[in-house]
Amino acid sequence: MKIDKTKLSRRDFFKAGTIIVGGIAVSSTFIPFDGLLFAIERPKGKGKWYGIGIDINKCIGCGKCAKACKIENNVLDEPFYFRSWVEQYTIKMDGSILVESPNGGIDGFKQSVPDEEIFKSFFVPKMCNHCAKSPCVQVCPVGATFETPEGIVLVDETYCIGCRYCVQACPYGCRYIDPGKGTVDKCTLCIHRLDKGMQPACFEICPTEARIFGDLNDPKSKVNEFLKNHTCMVIKPHLNTDSKLFYNALSSEVR
Amino acid sequence: MPQQIKRLIVAFAFFILLFLVLRQVLKPSSFGDLGHYRADAIQENIDSELHYAGIDNCSKCHEDIHMDKAIGFHANLNCEVCHGPGMKHVLYAGNFTDRQLPDSLLLYKPVGRSDCAVCHQVNAARIKILFDTIDNSMIRQIDAMTHNPVNKRTNEKLNCIDCHNPHQP
Questions:
Q1: A19 and chain B: CB distance < 8 Å anywhere?
Q2: ipTM of this complex > 0.85?
Q3: Mind listing the pLDDT tens digit of every residue in chain B (169 residues)?
Q4: Given A73, A122, A201, which is nearest B125 (Cβ)?
Q5: CATH number corresponding to A18-61+127-248
Q6: Which residues of chain B have a CB within 8 Å of the CB of A123?
Q7: pTM for the whole thing?
Q8: Residues of A in contact with B37 (CB under 8 A)
Q9: Torsion of CA A189, A192, A198, A202, to 10 degrees
Q10: How far apart are CA B99 and CA B97, in angstroms?
Q11: Do B10 and B27 belong to one domain?
Q12: Minimal CA–CA distance to A129: which of A89, A193, A82, A172?
């Protein structure tokens, strides 16, 4: 078809338009547009899909999970590198909120506000949420961070270029750059332990069973029982990250 | 067709071919098997070393302590919460029949006051009693500074384990 720019008739215009629009419509039935889909989906039927439950009522803030995580995964000892850590939230009588996390809770907590001024206080253990729609995975420019078919967000150290996009993208602050390696590092849900049939280190060590872990696809798993018996919530639900870390008794103050 | 276009087509074909060949050579073999990443990276993550052995392993050799603990208040506590990571200990302690372990296999013994205080120190966030029920979430709290610091008769300093058995408090 030849378009004469000086004398474009209405007929020619409709002809060209129909060919372009129709062509796209027809070709999209062969190759569907999937730019808006996510790389990984919850497996239907068989296949594991790991989920985590944390009971804030049960947490006594001993910080043993943060310590176990550091030892198990050889995380740097300095107090700003954490894959798993505990925060103490103190809501005072005047409504102000105080968040403390001295060395991630590893050395224990000291109550810094006198009892009379406290309205309520609680511990919040934090770790990677292993979101199904991970913002961190979406921003990686080189495919160095990804979700396994079981829904665990991992990092490929040999591919990471240390660009820090994912550190910025994570709404939960669960990533850091390892200054020695120059690559990003994060919770692997102790996939090396899962593979051998063990629990991740922080779940293994928790003295009060405040941390529950299991397969969301198995209706009889511990985590599903936990979800059924408690009123659970994720942090920052409005971000639609499809987080798989569910907290019981989560206060709206927790960010 | 104009001459320029022909040359351009040749140039384009050359560079596209070059790209395809280079991609074939440079792409890691497992890239794209499961998604836009190197599938081998999963195995590399799995290959890291274990440090924590889990409670089932300790009871194999320390059955007596395990039994003691199972009927006490610390029943839910994993041995490694207090003693630290024990994978090496579990793997190699069996080799020492004379019960004399080398230093590298000894585990940490939390004998100090601060070791117990990590969990038992009074803190408003450690829920004392939840809705008046006895519940796992409840942890008895003491002030490590004032809870029986010295022996009243001899004025000696006391550690927690002088009065409480750590395995059966």
A1: no
A2: no
A3: 889 999 999 999 999 999 999 999 988 888 888 888 888 999 999 999 999 998 888 888 898 999 888 888 898 889 999 999 989 898 888 787 666 788 888 889 888 888 899 988 888 887 654 444 544 446 888 888 888 888 888 888 888 998 899 998 8
A4: A122
A5: 3.30.70.20
A6: 125
A7: 0.87
A8: 143-146, 156, 159
A9: -40
A10: 5
A11: yes
A12: A172
